[in-house]
Design a protein that fits this description.
The complex is a heterodimer of chains A (about 200) and B (about 280).
Chain A (H helix, E strand, L loop, with lengths): L4 H7 L4 H12 L4 H12 L12 H11 L3 H13 L3 H10 L10 H9 L3 H7 L9 H14 L9 H4 L2 H16 L6 H10 L3
Helix pairs in contact in A: 1-4, 2-3, 2-4, 3-4, 4-6, 5-6, 6-8, 7-8, 9-11, 11-12
Chain B lengths: L2 E3 L9 H9 L2 E7 L10 H12 L1 H7 L4 E6 L14 H8 L5 E8 L5 H16 L4 E4 L5 H15 L6 E4 L6 H4 L5 E5 L8 H11 L4 E4 L11 H11 L4 H17 L27
Parallel strand pairs in B: 1-2, 2-3, 3-4, 4-5, 5-6, 6-7, 7-8
Helix pairs in contact in B: 8-9, 9-10
Classes of the chains: A mainly alpha (about 200), B alpha/beta (about 280).
Chain lengths: ~200, ~280
């Protein structure tokens, strides 16, 4: 499920507007502030056939961030996220595992998980969520179930799901049953897989 | 019937309103940044508000098949509070966003020197970021406020066709008609403008460069008054094409000048998230 920068580069070649933008950012990292929000208008927003789960604008934005010198990239990512619209925030979240920032992006994940925007919550549970502590990660997975976000958005779900998550899911199932409401099939399937832990 | 409400403050409205609007044919909206009932006292309060206008509110609208855009500015009333002035320095970041289709609401509230300064500075930002501008005309001393707004617009160098002068009425419409600016009218339950009065104005002044909005907000207002006005136009003998011009093609043309109006998913009801109702999270 982990996408690499090379795959993004192959899918969205550094030509035209993007080529020039990447050169500008490498030479002057501050230039990304105005280029990053314009990316969708410049390169389009179509889904990328060769990189499942990524759109053209998201890939271009991830490449722009990756062009920022390593000592600046954590600060630039934080600023772009802080002042980003929903599509920019989502692109920053998806780029985090591709950047040399260790766990410095965790506060952004925590912010995204606090929102009620399903697109941001889903993007926060990609490969970079390995930096989240277990309690935060379990709450985020449960929130996905609660909000109707497909669990296929959650990276390394089966590797990380544990008995405590099973207990939390079972509690939600009980509440839903008591209310005569349905539970998403992917959550029931996960609970089934977790039996016996 | 398809309706584009070019001025409505959805932040103050409920999901019931979104449902009723979509059912009435109101599927595209522009939400201008403005003042709230409670004055703000810091720049951070504004950035959280602007974040909502380019983040949460478009998401909320999309649940109901409504396409949401915004205009961003420091409004004239709060321009008078020195604690809010630093908002001007934060505007450029927001004026580059995909969903931001104009600078606004700018203009006058009490016509102070502070308002002069902030109004002119933001028209300059509109030129720099290649965006149209939405000008609010004051509720008090309105005719002179409108004249003074037109003078500031002329002095700024922004092209008149990229400016809309809003909240006009019988007294002020004539001041704007021949300036090249667009003319907007806010239909309210019993104050600014009513559907029957609007129909009379359209008869007298024609349909060109005319915009009709609900300006619905946290005060007594009604998000369906664009539709009511459309129905009043038909009842008064205007054609369906006339209604489509005023309530759809005109706002598309005006805000389309931003190059950022995105109507691609308006008819695509699949855009709502798996058909779920508004997602509350954690409750």
């Amino acid at each position: 499920m982990t996408t690499t920068l090379d795959e993004l580069k192959a899918a969205v070649p550094a030509q035209g507007w993007l080529g020039e933008a990447l050169e500008r950012v490498a030479a002057d990292p501050g230039a990304i502030g105005r280029l990053f929000p314009a990316a969708g208008r410049r390169v389009g927003r179509d889904a990328l056939a060769d990189v499942p789960g990524w759109s053209t604008d998201e890939a271009a934005r991830a490449l722009l961030l990756a062009a920022v010198p390593a000592d600046r990239v954590a600060a630039e990512a934080e600023g772009l996220y802080r002042y980003g619209d929903a599509a920019e925030k989502r692109a920053v979240l998806k780029a985090l595992p591709l950047l040399p920032i260790a766990d410095q992006g965790v506060p952004l994940l925590r912010d995204a998980i606090r929102t009620n925007d399903t697109r941001l919550v889903a993007a926060a549970l990609g490969p970079y969520a390995r930096h989240l502590d277990d309690a935060a990660w379990r709450q985020a997975v449960l929130k996905c179930v609660f909000m109707g976000v497909p669990l296929s958005s959650v990276d390394s779900l089966d590797e990380r799901a544990d008995a405590e998550l099973a207990t939390m899911l079972a509690g939600l199932v009980e509440e839903r049953r008591a209310a005569g409401r349905d539970m998403a099939p992917d959550a029931l399937a996960l609970l089934d897989r977790l039996k016996g832990l | 019937m398809r309706i584009f409400d070019p001025h409505i403050h959805m932040t103050s409205r409920t999901t019931d309103d979104y449902e009723r609007m979509a059912a009435a044919g109101i599927t595209v909206i522009v939400e201008p940044a403005f003042w709230l009932g409670q004055p703000r006292t810091s720049a951070g309060s504004f950035t959280d508000y602007f974040d909502s206008l380019v983040g949460w509110e478009p998401f909320r609208a999309s649940q109901f098949g409504v396409r949401h855009h915004a205009t961003i500015a420091l409004n004239p009333k709060e321009a008078n509070d020195p604690r809010c002035r630093e908002v001007l320095d934060l505007l450029p970041r927001y004026l580059e966003k995909d969903g931001v289709v104009a600078v606004g609401e700018v203009g006058y509230d009490s016509m102070t020197p502070e308002e002069d300064e902030v109004f002119a500075a933001q028209l300059a930002l509109a030129v720099e970021h290649e965006l149209p501008a939405l000008v609010h005309t004051p509720h008090r001393d309105k005719a002179r406020g409108t004249e003074r707004s037109l003078a500031v617009v002329a002095e700024s160098g922004i092209e008149p066709g990229r400016v809309v002068i809003d909240h006009l009425n019988e007294v002020t419409v004539g001041l704007v008609r021949d300036t090249g600016c667009w003319l907007a009218f806010s239909i309210y339950p019993d104050t600014k403008m009513s559907p029957p009065r609007m129909v009379k104005i359209l008869r007298e002044y024609g349909l060109e460069r005319m915009l009709v909005n609900s300006a619905a907000d946290w005060g007594r207002s009604d998000p369906l008054l664009t539709r009511t006005t459309a129905d009043a136009m038909l009842a008064a003998g205007f054609s369906e094409d006339d209604v489509d011009l005023v309530l759809w093609r005109n706002p598309v043309e005006f805000y389309g000048q931003s190059g950022r109006l995105d109507l691609s998913d308006v008819e695509d009801k699949e855009a709502t998230f798996a058909g779920n109702s508004i997602l509350r999270g954690g409750s």
